[in-house]
Design brief:
By secondary structure, the chain is α+β, with helices and mostly antiparallel strands. The protein has 2 helices and 5 strands; from the N terminus they run αβββαββ. The protein has a 5-stranded antiparallel beta sheet, covered by helices on one side. The radius of gyration is 13 Å and the shape is globular. Bound molecules: adenosine monophosphate and zinc ion (ZN). The site of zinc ion has 5 residues, from helix 1.
């Protein structure tokens, strides 16, 4: 499958790794929108948040555990945002589920 994040998960395309285990990979976003901008992806291909179901949701729960762990270890657990853009209208440019973990600045709400 011609999927950028599957290739990053497989190590075929380099990334700045922040955390890795059997289920997920976290790496720095190539175009950071905040002082901390990490992407967390499941290693299995899930196209978007719209494809989360009973069979694959354990990986998503795990990703949120990992996000909390990264925030604690990097010292920004007091303020961060997790975002997953789903579909073209929401600005999803890579069709492999990913969670943006962002911190280090003020975030407006509602998000534009
Ligand atoms: P989205 O637009 O929500 O689908 O998010 C995709 C994100 O992937 C964007 O923030 C991009 O900057 C980021 N991105 C694209 N290619 C790479 C790459 N090779 N390494 C790291 N981040 C990337
Ligand atoms: Zn993929």
């Amino acid at each position: 499958m011609d999927c950028l994040f599957c290739k990053i998960a497989a190590g075929e395309i380099p990334s700045t790794k922040v955390y890795e285990d059997d289920i997920c990979l976290a790496f720095n976003d190539i175009e950071p929108q905040a002082p901390v901008h990490i992407l967390i992806i499941p290693k299995v291909h899930i196209a978007s948040a719209a494809e989360i179901n009973e069979q694959n949701s354990a990986a998503v729960a795990h990703i949120f555990e990992v996000a909390a762990k990264i925030a604690a270890e990097k010292g920004f657990a007091d303020g961060f945002r997790i975002v997953s853009n789903c579909g073209d209208s929401a600005g999803q440019s890579v069709k492999h589920l990913h969670f943006h973990l962002m911190s280090g600045r003020e975030f407006g709400w509602p998000a534009g």
